[in-house]
Amino acid sequence: MRKWLNNIVNDTVTKSSDGLEYMREKSFNYIAIITLGIGMIALSVSLVEAVRDNNVILIVVDIVSYLFVAFIALGKKILPQKVRIYSFVYLSLILGVSFLLIEGPKGAGIMYLVAFNLLSAVFVGLNATFLSILITMVVWGIMAIIIRFDLLPGSPINEYGILQFFLTGINLIMISSVSFVLNLLVANLDKTVRHKERLRRLLHDNIERLSEAKKKAEESDMLKSLFLANVSHEIRTPMNAILGFSDLALNQDDMTEEEIIYYIRTIYDSGQYLMNIIDNILDVSLLDTNQLKIYKGNVSISKVFSDLKVFYGPIMKGHKNVELKFDINDKISGVEIFTDEHRLKQVLINLINNALKFTKKGYVTVGANVLSDEVEIFVKDTGEGINEADMDRIFERFVKANQSETITKKKGAGLGLSISKGIVEILGGKIKVESEQGRGTTFYFTLPLKKE
Predict the structure, then answer these.
(1) Per-residue pLDDT tens digits for 332-365
(2) Is the pTM of this model over 0.85?
(3) What CATH topology corresponds to 200-288?
(4) 337: helix, coil or strand?
(5) Taking the CB of residue 302, how many other CB atoms lie within 10 A of it?
(6) Alpha carbons 294 and 205: distance in angstroms, whole number
(7) Quick one: the chain helix, strand, coil %, rounded to 5?
(8) Could you state, in order of their start, the residue ranges of all structural domains in the chain?
């Protein structure tokens, strides 16, 4: 018995998300099986007495009732759970009335009526408890009328005296009132189980949040350290060039004109590179705080390509083995999109610079395709490509493709692609990459095709 109760409680706690309903259904299955076993003993005794008294009605009621209980207990896969519960509960009422009429005071009718109230409290709920006691009172009142006016002459129910029947009814109602207490106990058990489950879930959620917060804090510390290491390294490179060539220019009296131009050009290029690093750091900060300013307007794709073609004219003189091509065809010549032209150019410059950095020979192509409701812009190169292992991390900060010794020597803090992804998403698009190592890389990003 104790093990059975422990099983019910354990199963209830395990599946306490279903609460009281689960407890009722689980305990009902146990009680139905137990009733089936005990009922076999009770049926045998009752049938012996019924045969001895030649009581055919009692024999039929006993057999039919037991078969019905067996059907309820074993029909889990046939009958819905609620149908089984209600059938079991109201079978107690029917048996109570039947045994009162068939056996009178010496039968088990009152016991079944009490069981009807108790089972209603346990398996159905508080409202059913009120209803079951009300039904019991109505049934008892009808029985009293039958006895008072002898409406069923010869029935064993008439063995009750009217006063005896009245007092028995009061006792029945008082005993059945225990079902209220039982119902409250069951409800409190359910409340306790639910509260325990809420606390368990709250504890579990808090542990998960703490774990996630710890993980983010560790990642933040790692990223901060990586940020400082990368930025300090990247800033030191142009600063060394600026300071070094400035020192040379100040301390050499016999410099030729070509040397002066070279020194000034190097200082200027290093300053530009340093400014680019600072701009990227500022953009990262603005993206993190959602303060990146966007100024949208109608933008011509072909005009953006033309501007970039002019912009990269002088730059491409330093890439003698690489051709930069802009695919300005008839399909996009008249296309305008509603976006931020400056930020669009910033994304394209980041992607083009990235392509030129990793392309020693071949070409870099910039083009666009008009889709149903958006424009897809791409930057394709014939460079070194990206390792498959780095594809998922390529848009993370401070991540450089192909972390090989030769490639990591290339300039860059690893912020360009991360910034580009953030800008594209703010503009309402998506960015992706396709690459094959040794054969080149293509970056695609989309922008909504709408005018205003």
Answers:
(1) 777 888 999 999 999 999 899 889 988 989 999 9
(2) no
(3) Helix Hairpins (1.10.287)
(4) strand
(5) 18
(6) 38
(7) 70, 10, 20
(8) 2-176, 200-288, 297-448
